[in-house]
Amino acid sequence: MLVLEDVTILSGTNTHLVVFINLSDANASTTLDCVEYVGSYVSLPHMGMGMDTGHVADIRLSITTNIANLGIEDQDTLVVSVVSKLVNGKESQVTIGGFKIQYV
C-alpha cells in the first residue's frame, strides 16, 4: 500500500487528488488510463464541517498491480506524483505530511 500521511485539506473546499507512481511529469492533463495511475481521492464539503478548519486523513492506495505491470518489483525507490485537479474552476490547498510504503 502507498500511504499518503497526514493529508490536510481545507474543509470548505472541493478537492480531487490523483496519484501516479513513476510518472514524474504527471499533471492535470495526464490521462487516468495509464499503468502509472494508482488512484484518486475526493473530498467534498458537507454540512457541519467548519469552513475554515482543515481535516486530516491518511490516504491508502494499493500499488501491487501497478508495480507488477511496470516491472519494478526490484526497485528500491519510486516516484510519487500527486496532482490536484481543478474542481469547479478552483484549485484546493492540500498539505501532505509524508509518504510510506506499507506491506500488508
SSE topology:
Layout: E1 2-10, E2 15-21, E3 37-43, E4 54-61, H1 64-70, E5 80-85, E6 94-95, E7 98-101
Antiparallel strand pairs: 1-4, 1-6, 1-7, 2-3, 2-5
Figure out the total of helices: 1
Helix fraction by DSSP (H/I, runs of at least 4): under 10%
Mean pLDDT: 87
The largest pleated sheet is described as: 4 strands, antiparallel
Q: What is the tally of beta strands?
A: 7
Tell me, what's the shape? globular
Q: pLDDT under 50 segments (min length 5)?
A: none
Sheet-strand content, in percent, reads 35-45%
- Cα-based radius of gyration, to the nearest Å: 15 Å
Distance between the termini: 7 Å
Question: What structural class results from the helix and strand content?
Answer: mainly beta
Helices and strands, in order, run as EEEEHEEE
